[in-house]
Specification:
Helices cover 18% and strands 24% of the residues. By secondary structure, it is α/β, with parallel strands linked by helices.
């Protein structure tokens, strides 16, 4: 078994990088940024090269989002945009500019370094740090946001990301309460479980457990309303937006 290293924005262990499955960017299908358009699209940023930031380099993020894309290619989510390393930008996620990318697809996925209420890029554009209070996802098309990064949804992160997104049309924000492993398993298996018809939340619970151990903790925030019960929805049943009278429910579980 290959040893998996924990990573977070405050850890500096150097990891050996394998050959990446993607370089710079990848795209496929139609990309339409109109709100609630008919296209099913997924977006991902994956950052492994943190040279010059004080954070350790990572080794599995790009392979993970590439494998997730391959899993989703057999579903109706054949439209995608993926940016890696310096091509990934904080602008992809921040409210003033996100509608083109993270808010342009139905599913948005980040893989890289993070901490409570924040995740980190090393991009040529933008400030390379996305704070919860810079986001306003859901004004575009996005309904599921997954952060495959350390501690983004610890207790404070769940409150902060949840409050920042209320009434903006997001159904789910997925992440970790604890440190997360530098592994391709989470993204790969999340794509597999979504493809297999698992619910949005159950797919995340199961995928995070696959690549971690019981000392670690996963988490998500779910938005719902009387007009839109999101609890059991799947990737192909995201048909309403809980934008009126929204309530939130937060969950954490041992991995």
């Amino acid at each position: 078994m290959t040893t998996q290293s924990n990573f977070s924005a405050i850890l500096f262990a150097t990891l050996v990088l394998p050959a990446s499955a993607l370089a710079g960017s990848a795209s496929g299908g139609t990309w339409n940024i109109s709100r609630e358009d008919a296209y099913r699209e997924h977006f991902a940023d994956a950052v492994e090269d943190y040279t010059g930031t004080g954070n350790s380099n990572l080794g599995q993020c790009i392979d993970g989002v590439s494998a997730m894309k391959n899993q989703l290619s057999s579903t109706s989510y054949t439209n995608y945009r993926i940016f890696t390393d310096a091509s990934a930008s904080s602008n992809d996620w921040q409210s003033a500019t996100d509608q083109t990318w993270a808010d342009g697809g139905d599913l948005a996925y980040f893989s890289g370094h993070g901490n409570s209420g924040v995740f980190v890029m090393n991009g040529a554009v933008g400030d390379s740090v996305v704070w919860y209070n810079e986001t306003q996802w859901g004004n575009g098309d996005v309904e599921v946001v997954a952060m495959d990064a350390c501690k983004t949804l610890d207790a404070a992160g769940r409150t902060n990301f949840g409050n920042a997104n209320v009434n903006d049309g997001v159904h789910w924000i997925l992440g970790f309460e604890s440190n997360a492993n530098d592994t391709a398993v989470t993204a790969t298996n999340y794509g597999y479980y979504l493809r297999s018809g698992y619910g949005i939340g159950l797919a995340w619970v199961t995928a995070t457990r696959d690549g971690h151990d019981a000392t670690q903790t996963g988490a998500y925030v779910r938005f719902t309303s009387t007009a839109c019960n999101t609890a059991s929805e799947t990737l192909t049943s995201l048909t309403c937006d809980p934008t009126s009278g929204v309530t939130t429910a937060t969950y954490r579980w041992s991995l």
